[in-house]
Each structure stands twice: as structure tokens, then as C-alpha cells.
Amino acid sequence: MNPDLDRLQPYPFEKLARLKLGLTPPADKAHIALSIGEPQHPTPHFISEALIAHLHGLSNYPSTKGAPGLREAICAWLSQRFQIPAEILDPERHVLPVNGTREALFAFAQCVVNRAEGPLVAMPNPFYQIYEGAALLAGAEPYFLNTTRETGYLPDFDAVPESVWARCQLLYICSPGNPTGAVMGEDTLRRLIELAQRHDFIIASDECYSELYADEASPPPGLLQTAYNMGLTDFSRCVVFHSLSKRSNAPGLRSGFVAGDAEILKAFLLYRTYHGCAMSLPVQQASIAAWSDEAHVRENRELYRRKFEAVHGLLAGVLKVERPPAGFYLWPQTPVDGESFARDLFAQEHVTVVPGGYLSRESGGINPGRDHVRLALVAPLDECAEAARRLVSFVKSL
User: Fold this and answer.
1) Which of 270, 292, 314 is the last residue of a domain?
2) C-alpha span between 36 and 265 (Å, rounded)
3) What average pLDDT does the segment 322-326 reach?
């Protein structure tokens, strides 16, 4: 067996299941899950219909590179969303479809990390656990960049020693962040691109929450957008990951893309050709429909705004919690450690949340998630509001 498998930690939801084992929540209260970040809004009908209409494509092997029409639709969306001139993005070289960002974020490290050179893979802490697993199975050492209330829930990149950047081969970033919803500004992204050019590492920017934001006039900036604005029209060392799961409420479609540095994507295409992960033709057609429409995405954002308004309005007086600029999570500080908070909340109020410590690691003498919990506002509005009322009652009982 691959010995690196022994380095993997249990997934947060495995830990959560063990935490709840043996607890008996009140039977008169329906369970409300704010734990898994699985969108519950309906998948737009036109996406489902595009999938159904092209099911005859199941009789054909798909290309790993994806159909030209899909790559063209992705480039058109990237150009419009991130204000990159259409002629800069080449559908033949700058994009690859992937079966959701989870699959691609993991596979990417296996492709680009050179394990013979004692590599580091840097990542925010707390983080999406795929980053850590990808680093470990690529033979790299994870390097955790703590994000705390004091740092605005963003990593302090200026505090990273030069010796770390010298060993870094891959930097994962997530903006808007999971679980914090924090957004990296263009100045920070510029600083990271400059560091990547100086120290020869690759930036993998997980932007799967980029279309869920509070202010219609101020969408989160993207890595490729920043690179273009810097004059880096080849997107050197920059790769972004996008998904239809959150943007279009289609997590079961398993559809996304990677885009950026053409030389890196050339190598990633080679890896994926052997990996055997081509997107089926019906899913490609449904994806073309999804990337080509913005009306449903604007409606989706409005649904989340209503939930944030309702839930944050109830919690703000009893917990230290900030309404994030993007994403669909709340990341409140808890008056006791997050694990105890989550366990007792479930036992008393039949509400499931994720202890923040399950999403982070001990680093620099602290676990930055220990005194937090993550709330995923994916349930219907009335359920989210009811969960918030139960949270208020629970906190007042402590």
C-alpha cells in the first residue's frame, strides 16, 4: 500500500459522526443540518433539461480535453466575469474541464509536485481538507498559514519566512474562503504572484465560491484577472479552479474547470489523460448551458443574502460573528471550544454544525479553528432562521 495513506487524517464529517455517537437529541425538534456545504437550492430546470436532451451522448467516449464548445463557453464566461479581453484566453490552451474542483484540486498536486526536492505545499489554515491530502499523497510537507480574527481571516503572507517560499512548490489559496468567507483583495493577489515569480512556485486558486457574494457592484477579484492587470498575459504560474456546484446549485453534476498557465495545463492534460477522468458528453452540454447564463446566478445570490440577513441578525447579539463578504458560511467564535459547542448544541437543540478545529491543524502553537464552528447556510430560509433561534437559546443557556 502507498505508505502516505497512513498520513491522512479522518475527514471532518467522520469526526463529527463520532462526536455525535450516543447522543440523543430532543425528539420534538426536527433535525437541522448546517454542517455540509451542499447547496440545497433547486438546480435550474434548463440545466437539467440540457443534460437530458443530450443523453444520447452516453454512447460516445468523451475527450479528456473537453468539447470545443465547452471550452469556448468557459473562456467567454471568464472573459466577461473577470474583465479579461476575449482574445487573451485561448480555448485550446488556457482551459480544461474537470469533474468538480475537488477532483481537480487533488489531482493537480499529484501532477505538479516534484517529491524528489523536499517540497512544501502551503495552504490556509483552516482549509478544505483536500489540500492537505493532496500534498501528503504527492510526497510533500503541508505548510499551514493561520487565518485568525486578528488577520481578517486571511493568511499573513508577509510573515512567511523566505526559507519556506524557497521550498514551496505549490500554494493553495481559497478566495472567497472556506470556512471564513474572507476575500483576498487584488493587492494581496499581486503580492502572491510576485512571490511565485521570484521563488518559482505555482498558485492554485480555489475560486469555487467566487459567484456567491453580497455586493453586486463588487464581485471578488480573481487570480487570472489580477495577473492580466499586471501585464502577465500568459498567466505564468497561475491556475484557477471553478465549479458549477455552488454557482449553479449543481453539486451532483460534478462539473468545473481549471484555467491559466498554458504550459502547466499542458502537463495537467497529459496527467489527466492517464488518470481517466474525462467529463461525459451530456454533462458537458449541461455545463455549456450553465456557464452561458447569469440570471440564475443572480437569483441564487439573492437567496443567500436573505439567509445571511436573517441568521446574522439573530446571532450577532449573542456570538462574535461577522457577516462575510462572500460564500455561504458563517464562522462564529464560540464561548467554549468548538467541539464541546457542537456536541452540546446537537444534544440540546438537534442542530448540527462543524467544530472549527476539525477544519484546521495545530500550527504556530495554536489551532486557529478551535474556538469556532462553521455554519453552512444551505438549508431553506425558514430552517436557517429556526436553527439560528435555537443557537441563540443554546448560547444563553451556557
Assistant:
1) 292
2) 31
3) 96
User: 49: Cβ–Cβ under 8 A, 6 or more apart, which residues?
Assistant: none
Strands 202-206, 168-174: pairing is parallel
Residues whose CB is less than 8 angstroms from the CB of residue 59 and which lie 6 or more positions away in sequence, other chains included? none
User: Residues 345, 377: one domain?
Assistant: yes
* Tens digit of each residue's pLDDT (9 = 90 or more) over 76-118: 999 999 999 999 999 999 999 999 999 999 999 999 999 999 9
Beta bridge mates, 241: 206, 258
Query: Using only C-alpha atoms, what is the Rg of the chain?
Result: 21
- CB distance 350 to 29 below 8 Å: yes
Q: Tens digit of pLDDT for each residue in 121-130?
A: 999 999 999 9
Domain endpoint, select from 292, 319, 354: 292
Q: Would you say residue 343 lies in a domain?
A: yes
The full 3-state SS of the chain, as one line of letters, equals: CCHHHHHCCCCHHHHHHHHHCCCCCCCCCCCEECCCCCCCCCCCHHHHHHHHHCHHHHHCCCCCCCCHHHHHHHHHHHHHHHCCCHHHCCCCCCEEEECCHHHHHHHHHHHHCCHHHCCEEEEEECCCHHHHHHHHHCCCEEEEEECCHHHCCCCCHHHCCHHHHHHEEEEEEECCCCCCCCCCCHHHHHHHHHHHHHHCCEEEEECCCCCCECCCCCCCCCHHHHHHHCCCCCCCCEEEEEEHHHHCCCHHHCCEEEEECHHHHHHHHHHHHHHCCCCCHHHHHHHHHHHCCCHHHHHHHHHHHHHHHHHHHHHCCCCECCCCCECCEECCECCCCHHHHHHHHHHHHCEECEEHHHHCCCECCECCCCCEEEEECCCCHHHHHHHHHHHHHHHHHC
On whether both 262 and 358 belong to a single domain, the answer is: no
